[in-house]
Amino acid sequence: MNEMHELGKMIIFFGIIMIIIGGTLLGFGGLFKIGRLPGDIVIKRGNFTFYFPIVTSIILSILLSLIFTLILRR
Q1: Whether residue 45 has pLDDT greater than 90
Q2: What per-residue confidence (pLDDT) applies to 47?
Q3: Across all residues in the chain, what is the average pLDDT?
Q4: What is d(CA 47, CA 56) in angstroms, rounded to the nearest whole number?
Q5: Half-sphere exposure of 71 (CA within 13 A, CB side)
Q6: Structural domain spans, the chain
Q7: DSSP states of the chain
Q8: Model's pTM, two decimal places?
Q9: For the chain, what percent of residues have pLDDT higher than 90?
């Protein structure tokens, strides 16, 4: 039962963090060019556009790894 309590607290914590990040991106979306970084793949052919944010994904992965390492360090 204690494990479920801890899991619930962790899910609530990450939910609050996601709300903060989402609000920040909505509020300051024009200032941050996340998602359109040099190195992201964009293919345009007529009325078809394929977008693959590889560099954005790598940077977000590094940032989240650092954040989780700092938070979960004991």
Answers
A1: yes
A2: 93
A3: 83
A4: 24
A5: 10
A6: 1-32, 36-74
A7: -HHHHHHHHHHHHHHHHHHHHHHHHHHSTTT--TT--TT-EEEEETTEEEEE-HHHHHHHHHHHHHHHHHHH--
A8: 0.52
A9: 12
| C-alpha span between 37 and 1 (Å, rounded) | 45
What are the backbone dihedrals phi and psi of residue 67, each rounded to the nearest 5 degrees, phi first? -60, -50
In whole angstroms, what is the distance from residue 22 CA to residue 40 CA? Answer: 21
Report the candidate in 16, 57, 52 with the shortest Cα–Cα distance to residue 34. 57
**Distance of alpha carbon 33 from alpha carbon 56, whole angstroms:** 10
Token digits of residue 44: 């345009």
Q: How far apart are CA 7 and CA 18, in angstroms?
A: 16
